[in-house]
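Usage

Read records sequentially. Each one opens with the input sequence:
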Amino acid sequence: MWTASLLKKLEPELTQRLSFVLAGTDVGFPGKNGRQAVLKALWLEGSRRARTIRLVSGLAAVFVLLARLEEGRHTPNSLLLDVLLWSTTLVATVLLVWRERNHGLANRRAKKEHARFIAAAETSTDAFFILDAVQSQSGHLCDFQYIYLNSSAAELLNRSREELLNREMCALFPETRTNGSFEKYRKVLETREPASDEHCVTLEDGNLMWLRERVSPLGHGVAVTTTDITELKLNEEKYERLSSLSDSLFESAPYSIIETDAAGTIRAMNTAAERLTGYARSELAGKSLTVLHEPRELTRQTEGGAEDAQPEMDGLSLLIAKAAQGEMEEREWTYVRNDGSTLPVHVALTGVRDGAGNVSGFVAMASDITERKQLMTYLNHMASHDQLTGLPGRTLLRERIAEAIEKAMLHGRKVAVFVIDLDHFKRLNDSMGHRSGDELLVGMAERLRTALRRSDTLGRLGGDEFVVVMPHIATLVDVERCAKRLVDRVAGTAQVGNMEVNLTASVGVCVYPDFAEDVDSLLERADAATYAAKANGRNQYQLFSEAMLKESQERLSMDTALRHALTREELFVHYQPLVSLTTGRVIGMESLLRWHHPKLGIVPPSTFIPLAEDTGLIVPIGEWAMKQSCKQAKMLCDELGMDLYVSVNLSPRQFEQSNLLEAIDEALEESGLPAHNLQVELTENTLMVDSAPNLEKLQKIRQMGARVAIDDFGTGFCSFSYLLQYPVDRLKIDQSFVIKAVTEPNAATVVRTIVAMSHNLGIKVIAEGVETPEHLKFLTQRNCDEGQGYYFSRPVAAAAFGESVHAIHRMFDQSGLIKSGLRLNSESRVDCGAGVDPAGTVQPLVRTDKLTVM
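and closes with the structure output:
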């Protein structure tokens, strides 16, 4: 009975416990809403007595039922009550067993989840906190308490877990009240809405650390996850800088940049694109890229060749064909600006790919190539046209001739090619200077233009050689009439500076298809006809014939042979003695170049020297002749025991070479010949050019110790003015005056004047062409200093020169020519001042009665 009375006292509590069990309520678990699985597992693990309480409560309820069953036997409905009580006891027992089983499973799951949570939290690089709210006695939130934190959190706070767990946050870190952390946690707890922010903290070493903090409500507290985003921030800053740089480059790029989508719709453009196109960004945004292109260019078919080419491709598809395949296409297009004007541009179009590798848009970079086009046009014009006259050059002329031939083939017409060469231009150019020569060429081009039709082409091959191409010619009579018109148009006088010169031209003509059927043959045979016109007296035209072609081929063959003559040792030097007309003794020699052709024999200098001048071979040949002459002159001086000088001719082209002084010095040094034994001869036309470099070069030659002589004096412009400017030692009177002097009074007067004037200037005179005793007598009477000619000796080889010297000496000794020669007395000398113009030029008119040169 004592048990019954005890159970009766405990009945209310046990009944309540049983009702809790039957209702499934977790008795003793704090918090109406509970925590997450991890907190539940933590609580359950620390409250093992809960099972015992539940078990005892269940047994107590069974005992109560049994007691009631015992008491109920004395009631009328005891049988029904027994059945009800036993049924209830059975059901309660089953429910109790089932409840305990499920609760055990829940505990095991909680433990497993707890283990996972701990593993995840501890291995995470993020700092993780769980904070419970701390309330004051008045019920207000006053702080947060650390109830869990992982190792990363302890490392971040620079404290151990023992120092942090179950400690209040604001007490440990007072700054959390002022930096907004406490208020943030409080707000999340009250509003139950998560919050996230980023902030920067300064570490002890002075470096900055960026943190991203995410706060979530958790029961009566908050869960805080803090991530170190310093590296991410640095990358963001780099990206922002790169993005800013990219934007800056995009905007400040000197070339146009336009961005489109995959359909070619313009999305963005930079300032340079606005300047280039004349459109504002707002005007082009949303429009197709094709609005900027010349429509005719976008309707052209693609260039053939590729098997996958689309023959009918046009519009945008033509524009982006290669870029859509992942290639960069660079091409020249024509942009149509906002004002309707067009300009050539160079466009580089490339596709932009997305993360999946698909083309998501295009970027067109364009630059204005107007100046480049103009420069290319200019360069092409320079390459195909003559710079001096602006006429078509060789390349363009050939194209024009080829075009004319094609048209003539279609229409059954003729094409005439005229090669026009200005007569004696080289002499004019050398005497008056290159600038005056250029003026003559420009004037000649203007004259020729006036004689041509619009369909004709006038060009310049180079030098004084012009070409006229005349298409649509019917007969050869027309050709000859045109050729005569060209000759007549050039013939006449031309004013060059203060000087008036006479111009004539030689014209050669070749006709398609009568005499040639291709471009090269037409030019070659017209050139051969020009040479024939020159050979026949100049100032005329010649129509091509087969004989001319043979001469042209021979001249070409001669040119080729001359190029090999030096290496094959076919060139050699002869020497003609120079005789003093006062002593009758040989005092020097003139070096004369000779060529022995293996098939043609001895080639006259008048044939190969001009050819060498034209081809430029005169320079290496002249250097060889200089060295050979100095070497053999030294040998002859030593052999004869005489102090002889050697006179070497320099062509205008040799005199212009930059290394002339070095070549002379090298020849003297290698031969051992003293410099005063060398004399260089120049034509007067070479010195007629008033050139400071020429004067300097002559002065340096004389400073070396060599002498300077003027060859063929009187055959050019015969001006004494340059004798006052240039350092000259000797004048050589041309043989044409000497030969005529004994028969023609005018020629004799010219010779006397030259000798007298030269002596007054301190210049010695050498007479060329002394072939008879009368020539010698005339010259000795006029006090001429030296002479040379066949009367004394022909040019001989160095081996025979000594014999010639002895023969000349015997001739003078035996004949007494010097003693019997008549000398002019002082009264009979020519007055050098008479008949000389202020420029020092001898006029062609001679009056013999008073021996006055006009």
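Summary fields computed downstream for this record:
- Residues 593 and 625 are 7 Å apart (CA to CA).
- The longest helix spans residues 78-123.
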